[in-house]
Amino acid sequence: MFRTWFLGTVLALALPVWGQTYPNKPVRMVVPFAAAGVVDTTARALGPRMGEGLGQPVIIDNRPGAGGNIAADAVAKAAPDGYTLLITTHGHAISPGLYKKLPFDAGRDFAAITQIASSYLVFVAALKVPAANVQELLALARANPGKLNYGSTGLGAPPHLVGELFKMTTGVDMVHVPYKGDAPMYLALLAGEVDVAFGPLGNAIQHIKSGKLRALRMTNPKRSAAIPDVPTMIDAGVPNLEATGRLGLFAPAGTPRAVVDRLYAEMKKVLSTTEIQDRLPGWGYEGVGSSPDEFDARFKSDLALYVRVIREARIPLQD
């Protein structure tokens, strides 16, 4: 009993000191995707500025592969000392429902630091589709069940799950056509091989502004600053469909709360700078900077949502 009391007392006294002395060496920010992608570009913009506040360099470490699970596993197994972080998308909340087995538990093996930003999908149509808005598309789909198709960036990817959620919410029947990434999906839309798709806004803006794709709606609850003329799904009368992507920052579970709070405070300072606020929309993001507790609650909610969608849509589990 004395030993338990003694250890508890030592830890209680050590935590404030840890928060004061952290960090005393470089911090590694693990990115689950290859260099030059949107997440990597964002991390390389945020990292150095965060490092200035921490007083130590923030080194970007790209660990692509397995839908982000290689990077997540590396961070889950790292020492919980605040020197290894994971910057990742909402795919981190999808993996537990999509894969038969993972080497980590997304709900238990990570400490949420902050939701850095929200990213939204835009619902776009090929020019061949005779629908100028969502209501016209719904009427077209209901008059032709199973004849319209929608593209996605891959089986179980966010655009696929949002497409299935759209079908569940509206009761329409559309056929899913998966592609291997954003670029081939948009090429298929431009060529008229698929009718519609929910796609990442950052990669769609150029095609929308050039008039090569028709933007029907955004999936966010408020209009995007990047394309403010495009209404939301709520405007279109589909109020139950809010598909918000997330870019978040995590540490290994067990990281001292004082360290988590320090990391949150420094990232929030970076997000408040005019430079980052101006650059985020160009990457398809809107800054958030939620607290660790707020982000943890939202992440757990996402975990439950995606498990339900994958199950109800009968999406095959991946190895």
Jot down its keywords.
319 residues; alpha/beta; D-Maltodextrin-Binding Protein, domain 2; 2 domains; 10-stranded mixed sheet; 20% strand; globular; disordered N terminus
3D architecture notes:
- This protein starts with a helix and ends in a 7-residue tail after the last helix.
- Strands 1, 2, 3, 4, 5, 6, 7, 8, 9 and 10 form a ten-stranded mixed sheet that branches.
- It has two domains: 27-118 and 244-312, D-Maltodextrin-Binding Protein, domain 2 (3-Layer(aba) Sandwich), CATH 3.40.190.150; 120-218, Periplasmic binding protein-like II (D-Maltodextrin-Binding Protein, domain 2), CATH 3.40.190.
- With 319 residues, the chain is an alpha/beta fold.
- Helices cover 43% and strands 20% of the residues.
- Helix 2 (38-54) crosses helix 9.
- Strand 5 (149-152), helix 6 (158-170) and strand 6 (175-178) form a beta-alpha-beta unit.
- It has eleven helices and ten strands.
